Amino acid sequence: MAYSDKVIDHVENPRNVGTLDKNDPNVATGMVGAPACGDVMKLQIKVSDEGVIEDAKFKTYGCGSAIASSSLVTEWVKGKTLDQAAEIKNTDITAELELPPVKIHCSILAEDAIQAAIADYKSKQAK
Amino acid sequence: MRYFELFNLPADYNVDLNLLNQRYLELQRAVHPDKFAGKSEREKLLAVQKTSEINDALAVLKHPVKRAEYMLSEQGVDIRAEQQTLQDPAFLMQQMELREALEDIQHSSDPETEIDAFESQIKLLDKQYSDKLSEQLIAQDLSVLEVAADNVRKLKFIYKLREELSRIEDSLLD
Predict the structure, then answer these.
(1) Residue A44, phi then psi, degrees to nearest 5
(2) Contact residues of A toward B, CB < 8 A
(3) Domain tally for chain A?
(4) Could you tell me the residue range of the domain that residue A109 belongs to?
């Protein structure tokens, strides 16, 4: 299967790979996995006191599409408020990366990673 | 469950693989095209269909994850085409760490020892999630079947680790 140029670009030059300090109260982590292919994705966000995502990092073990999807969402969420980030849909990711139907689950994984990170942030703040 | 019936085996997750293979060979011989050389077109066609059915059944029953997914689907819980994600932070964190450890093996000074250690770790995890499947997969209770489905989803990650490990083993042998 041929990857689109955008996927190849993200795989060759992944943006924002790494980890943020999980003990920082402003850092939240979203962990998701796709049983279909065994891919594992970790997305971390650092949220300012005003509720804006200042930084995002990811680590993904999976195929090119999964890596590209997570790399892309780290770019997209930066500068967004939590509510704006929550609006990112997997279909936006598929469209941007021109993912074929068999790789849609990779974009679902990335969307769910954002949701999981936001949920983690809210539960951390509630404590 | 039809696939088990084909081989005249009890519908049990802990299938006797030797017996399965033996029954497969018997069936395979019985429907071999040579035996149908002088028969009608209809009989030939049926023999071909039977051959492909027993091949499919064997492939599913031989593989622990496919066998479990098949049994779940026969019980009305089909997870084979699902796209939903797994959200179990503790389990996924462990998966992430295991993937990182796998990466380190490739640069280790003594990869063989580390591969062996990793293999035993995978075996333990495999056991943890498949130990109760035999009972769970024949349960009538949907909540028990859901627990089984969750175990099978996790087993798929364990099998992925196993695949990655053998890939690394192969690359180190080259």
Answers:
(1) -115, 140
(2) 29, 31-38, 40, 42, 59, 61, 104-105, 108-109, 112, 116
(3) 1
(4) 5-126
